[in-house]
Amino acid sequence: MLTDSSKAVVALASRLGDSRRPSLSPTEWDRFSAVLADQQLDVAMVFDDGFSAESLPGVTEKISAKINTLLETAGAATVEAADLGRFGITTITIVDDAYPGAFRQRLGNLAPPVIYAVGNLDLLSGDGVGIVGSRNVTEEGKTAAEEMAREAVRNGRSVISGGARGVDSFAMNAAFMAGGTVVGVLADSLQGRIRKSGTLQAIDEGTVCLLSQQIPSAGFTPHAAMARNKLVYALSEVTVVVAADHETGGTWAGAIEALKKHNGRIAVWTGDGAGPGNSALVNIGGSPLTSPDQLFDAQQDLPTEPSEQLGLLDSA
Questions:
Q1: Are 279 and 290 in contact (CB under 8 A)?
Q2: 224 Rama class: left (phi>0) / alpha (psi -120 to 50) / beta
C-alpha cells in the first residue's frame, strides 16, 4: 500500500497513468521537495483542498504550472501504481523506507524520485559488486566478467549489472550459476522481462531483484540506458569496468560520468580481454585490476547450484 506521501510523489514525478505526463524531473523534484522541507510541509499536502503551488516561496512558475497539470491526472497515476502491485512490481518513492539510501547519498539531486522493482527488495540495501562492459566482448573479456562475478559470490556479495547482452549477461549468469544473488538495473521493459520463465523462477527463489527508473511498460531508449548506468554505479560498493570502447559507447560514457562525479568506487580490468578504452579510464582515475582476487582490495569499506542460466538477460 502506498502512503499518501508516496502517492503524491508518484503523481508528481512519474509518468504512470499516461506516458505523456510532464512529470517533474529529478532536479525539479529536488527543488520542490526542498521548498516543502523549508516550510516543514509533507508532500501529501498537494492533495489538500485549496492547495496552491504558486503560494509556496521558491516554487518557480514553470514548476508550479507542471504541478497543477500533473495533479489533474494524479488519480490515474496512483491507480496504475496499485495495478502494478498485482503483478508483483513494487513502486518505490524517494520518501519510502525501501528506497535505496545509496541513490540519495551518491546521486544527490539526480536521484530518481520513483523507481520500480520486482523480486527480493532486500538486495537493494546490501553490499554489491557492479560489473559492466561492452556488448561485443572477446572470449577473454567474457571469462574475466564471469570470474569477477564468481569472486563476488564467494565473498557473499550480489552482482549488480544492467541486464544487457555481453558483459552484463555473462556476469549475471555466472553469479546465478554459482548460487549467488543478482540485481539487474534495466533500461528496457520491466514488465516484458518478468514474463520470462527463468526470471520468474529466480524471483520465486529470492535470488534476484530487477529495477528500473522508467515506467515498467517503457521500452529501451539510449536515454534510459544512460540513466540505468548511473543507478548501477550508485548501487554498487565497487563497479568493475571489464571492457569499454575508447571515447565511444555507453560503457565508456557511463564510466567517464561516474569517475567525474565520484559515483562510487570504480575498478578497471587491465588483464586479458580488457577493452580498448580501459587504459584511458585508468589514466583518469579508475583503479587498475589485473586479477579477480584483487577485487575486494578495490573496496576500502568491504571487509546447491542452479542448473540453468538466468533468463532475464539479453535484450537491451
A1: no
A2: alpha
Query: Quick one: average pLDDT of 176-194?
Result: 94
Q: What is the pLDDT of residue 131?
A: 98
Q: Is residue 240 within 8 Å of 271, Cβ to Cβ?
A: no
Domain ranges of the chain: 4-86, 121-298
Least confident of 35-44, 199-208, 266-275: 199-208
DSSP 80-94: HHHHHHHTTPEEEET
**pTM of this prediction?**
0.91
Q: What is the CATH number of domain 121-298?
A: 3.40.50.450
CA geometry: angle at 302 spanning 235 and 167, to 5°?
50
Q: Kindly give, in sequence order, each residue whose CB lies less than 8 Å from that of residue 269, ignoring residues fewer than 6 positions away.
A: 141, 144, 148, 240, 241, 242, 243, 278, 289
User: The C-alpha cell of 49 is what?
Assistant: 483542498
pLDDT of residue 306: 37
Taking each helix axis from N to C terminus, what angle separates 222-235 and 250-260, rounded to the nearest 10 degrees? 50
- Looking at the DSSP bridge assignments, the partners of residue 157 are none
Nearby residues of 232 by Cβ (< 8 Å), 6 or more positions away: 130, 132, 160, 161, 162, 185, 239, 254
- Closest C-alpha among 125, 126, 167 to residue 146: 167
| Backbone phi, psi, residue 100, to 5° | -60, 120
d(CA 224, CA 96): 23
The Cα 104–Cα 186 span in angstroms is: 19
Q: Buried (b) or exposed (e) across 262-288, using 16+ Cβ within 10 A?
A: ebbbbbbbbbebbbebbebbbeeebbb
In tens, the pLDDT along 88-121 reads: 999 999 999 999 999 999 999 999 999 999 999 9
Amino acid at the residue 281: L
